[in-house]
Amino acid sequence: VNVFYRPLEKINAVIETYPKGIAGFRSFLDLMATEPDIADAPEARPAPPLAGHVRFEGVSFGYTPGRPVLRDLDLAVAPGETVALVGPSGAGKTTICSLLPRFYEVEAGRITIDGIDIRQMTLASLRQQIGIVQQDVFLFAGSIRQNIAYGRLGADDAAILQAARRARLDTLIADLPEGLDTLIGERGVKLSGGQKQRLAIARIFLMNPPILILDEATSALDTETERAIQQALAELARGRTTLVIAHRLATIRDADRILVVTERGIAEQGSHAALLAADGAYARLHGAQMQAG
Ligand code: ATP
């Protein structure tokens, strides 16, 4: 399904309807950096190649004692399914996604992938199979080749160029006099926000993980760039178990399933059409978007 390729009119209005949480946006890298306690269990084994059957079973979690964010959450995502998480700021969408790569430890319940508790897998083997696309793109000073190959060290040029093509980055590379050898960063070419995002997407194509977490951008790029990125993301999600943290309803209409996450848990779930017909929380969010637009 073409989840991400959507016209972008009216989406800014939706963002405005979500109050800004005090925590605001935190990058997954930040999360990793602030969580030194998580380590391999003594009995942890490298995960086998995963199909991506994700299950949260009775999961409870909070960042501070006495302030639970998730209570007894149950969620099953089939291999290849795209599930979009929508809902008010602070409801726990990012938190749900942060638990899957084990940036935090569940307090109760468990998370399994293909039936294996993620605590039984080594962290490296778990995280190697979860691609994360977020707003903040981590680039280092070096060539475009090196920056894409960060997704799979040792990848050859053919694989790198194929990933770039699928990420809609190939025309940019072709236009640069030094192609893949073009240096970026401080002393090299400065990439635009949209180009950086496509570079990040190219990395994940190269990484080829069975599971994907997409933290959708809160602000729109120009329409042309946005369309290229949405197309690339739709292609990236195809065949992978995908969790989308959605800030804009317009981009997730074609998700296999939409979950409305509130402080009380999953309030509602279903397809876009089914949720509109149910005339509940999602329909209200959608109505607010239409009106605001
Ligand atoms: P948004 O749409 O704004 O991204 P969200 O639905 O993703 O919101 P979370 O970011 O998961 O919500 O936040 C859920 C709750 O946990 C909020 O009350 C938030 O303030 C709190 N929270 C999130 N991250 C942390 C953290 N690192 N430390 C303490 N509290 C946190």
TrEMBL record:
It is a multi-pass membrane protein. Residues 54-288 form the ABC transporter domain. Its main location: membrane. GO terms for molecular function: ATP binding. This is ABC transporter ATP-binding protein. It is found in: Cell membrane. It comes from Falsiroseomonas selenitidurans. The keyword DNA-binding does not apply. Keywords: ATP-binding, Membrane, Nucleotide-binding, Transmembrane, Transmembrane helix. It comes from the Bacteria.
